[in-house]
Design goal:
Elements: E1 6-10, H1 14-26, E2 30-34, H2 37-46, E3 51-55, H3 66-78, E4 84-88, H4 93-101, E5 106-109, H5 114-133, H6 150-162, E6 169-172, H7 179-188, E7 197-201, H8 207-216, E8 221-225, H9 235-241, E9 246-251, H10 255-270, E10 273-276, H11 284-301, E11 307-309, H12 311-319, H13 325-339, E12 346-348, H14 366-376, H15 381-388, H16 392-402
Parallel strand pairs: 1-2, 1-3, 3-4, 4-5, 6-9, 6-10, 7-8, 8-9
Antiparallel strand pairs: 11-12
């Protein structure tokens, strides 16, 4: 078995996790473990995972499996090609069957037989390879919609309901709220995920570009970025070109604004379903959840010491308006982890918090973060853009701005 195979074990019982890790590592697999879903999302966002072993209960005394089913739903929503093996107890056959109906690939009963577990994981790895070999686009890096606010719950529900259809979708949201990620997840969960996902930058489009990009997206998904900025002279050209193509369009303006910008005919074609993404100022309960997630993620990704938010920093982060929304919060936290910066007050888990004056400005840090992302990805612009939550066109514009 290849050492490139990466298995994630999600189980709150350290003995179970250790037993699985020792067995699978003996067969040349890389194994990561997480005690709960929160820790699992950090690992899922940090590295590609081939097979997930998922326990269904994480709180002491719980036996319903509801925590695990919620995690399973989000795993499948984040990557329709995910291979999830449910781990359940002797009395859990009915639960395992329910899990498989919800998208799990297989199940293993605790206490397991080592040979049975190994065979099940190897079968899962083969299935994952087969799924990826038929895919035109790789899984979305870190592709998960984190947050428990009502707005984010509605967005997740809409993605789950409409992604498997061929309906056109219009995504509204301020800069940095996750429009690109939503578009990628919709394609990934569609029946045509094995076909191309192509992005058209409406602001920079002309008739030739529209024809080429629409042809490239044939059978797959065409994402029209900033559709409200499409020159009026090209409205009819685009409308004709996308007659038989699934479209996911993005905009920073509301429904009334988009109607005024592109007219009723084009809006009817691209806006069958609206998904509205709230700014962080309307997601107060999510801000610290996201900050802690990014803090753990970048400490893991950059092999830095695990850090914790001290109370003063948490208060400052929660109070900030974050004009660049999730993207801005993510970049500010990554900068703090990379540079050990005083711009965001952080303290090691083993140390006393140090009170510092917070400076949460993003503008001064964007160039450094873009440079770091490009260097990490060996100047592969597509991968760097995905890591930064930008389209390629948006990253190219920023690179030009900073002379990169």
């Amino acid at each position: 078995m290849s050492t490139e195979s990466h298995i994630l074990v999600i189980d709150d019982d350290p003995d179970i996790a250790k037993a699985a890790r020792l067995l699978l590592e003996r067969h040349e697999m890389r194994v990561s473990t997480a005690a709960d879903p929160e820790a699992a999302w950090v690992l899922l966002a940090g590295d590609p995972i081939d097979v997930i072993l998922l326990d269904l209960n994480f709180a002491r005394g719980r036996t319903t499996g509801e925590e695990g089913f919620a995690m399973l739903d989000r795993l499948i929503a984040a990557d329709a090609r995910a291979v999830v093996i449910v781990v359940t107890g002797h009395s859990g056959i009915a639960v395992a069957v329910r899990a498989m109906r919800s998208g799990a690939t297989d199940f293993v009963i605790k206490p397991w037989n080592n040979e049975r577990l190994l065979t099940t994981v190897e079968r899962g790895l083969a299935l994952r390879r087969a799924k990826l070999e038929t895919a035109a686009t790789p899984p979305v890096a870190g592709g998960v919609l984190l947050g428990e606010s009502a707005g984010m719950a509605r967005a997740r529900d809409l993605v789950a309901r409409v992604a498997p259809t061929t309906a056109s979708i219009l995504i509204h949201g301020a800069p940095g709220t996750g429009k690109t990620l939503i578009a990628q997840l919709i394609h990934q969960a569609s029946p045509h995920a094995h076909l191309p996902l192509v992005t058209l930058d409406a602001e920079a489009a002309d008739a030739a570009v529209i024809a080429a990009q629409t042809a490239a997206a044939a059978g797959g998904t065409l994402v029209i970025d900033h559709i409200d900025r499409l020159p009026r002279a090209l409205h009819a050209t685009l409308l004709n070109a996308i007659a038989s193509t699934r479209v996911v369009a993005t905009t920073r303006v509301d429904r009334a604004g988009i109607r005024a910008a592109i007219g009723e005919d084009l809006l009817d074609r691209v806006g069958t379903i609206d998904i509205a993404l709230s700014p962080l100022t309307d997601r107060a309960d999510d801000v610290l959840l996201l900050a802690r997630h990014f803090l753990a993620l970048f400490a893991y990704r950059h092999a830095k010491p695990t850090m914790a938010l001290d109370p003063a920093t948490a208060t400052a982060i929660a109070a900030d308006r974050w004009p660049d929304n999730v993207r801005g919060l993510r970049q500010a936290i990554e900068r703090a982890v990379l540079l050990g910066s005083d711009d965001v007050m952080l303290s090691p888990d083993t140390a006393e918090p140090t009170p510092l004056a917070p400076d949460l400005s993003l503008a001064r840090n964007e160039q450094a973060l873009i440079t770091a992302a490009l260097e990490r990805q060996a100047f592969n612009v597509s991968r760097a853009a995905a890591q930064l939550g930008l389209t390629r066109a948006a990253l190219y514009r920023r690179m030009a701005r900073y002379g990169l």
